[in-house]
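Sample pair:
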Amino acid sequence: MRKISFPVPPPSLDDLVRRFEEAIGPRTRVLHFCHITNLTG
C-alpha cells in the first residue's frame, strides 16, 4: 500500500493530480479516497 500526502489546500489541481499519477504503477489495482469533512481535526 502506498499513501500519498499533500498540503491543504493543495497549491493547484495540477499538483494534486501529479501526486496521484506518480503514485500509480503497473501493480496498482485499487485507488481509495477518504472523504474528509474536517481538514483541521
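Residues 8 and 36 are 11 Å apart (CA to CA).
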